[in-house]
Amino acid sequence: MRKGVTLMRIPFANLLFGLAFLPVALWANPYDGVYKQTANAECALVGVDGGSLKIEEDIFYGVEVECHMINPVEVEDMNATIYEMQCSGEAEAWTERAMLMPDAQGTGLYMIWSGYAFRYDRCDAPDR
Questions:
Q1: For the segment 71-99, what is each residue's pLDDT rounded down to a tens digit?
Q2: In angstroms, rounded to a whole number, what is the distance separating the alpha carbons of residues 32 and 61?
Q3: Does residue 127 belong to any structural domain of this protein?
Q4: Which domain holds residue 62?
Q5: What's the predicted TM-score (pTM) here?
């Protein structure tokens, strides 16, 4: 009996060991990417007027602002997520909630803040 218990622990231990080396991308934010602020925005310039916005590892990088995206809540039947945004920029810090949702074509992102709604095209999205 003891031999069976030992054999059961080995595969489980190997599984845990293997999970430790899975790529971090498996846990990446589904909204990670670079998005155009406007149709003719420069994708290589992140966080400046006329440039792009970026979401990476649960951090939103906007124009002179950085927001940590925490406490995600999935919106049922909408493929959307509400985040608490802990933001800082221009010597200020604040917290707001924002809802993020991919567009129907999968080429962009909707971002809704209190009273504002934005749609951003993904920089690496194919031309339509």
A1: 999 999 999 999 999 999 999 999 999 99
A2: 11
A3: no
A4: 34-122
A5: 0.74
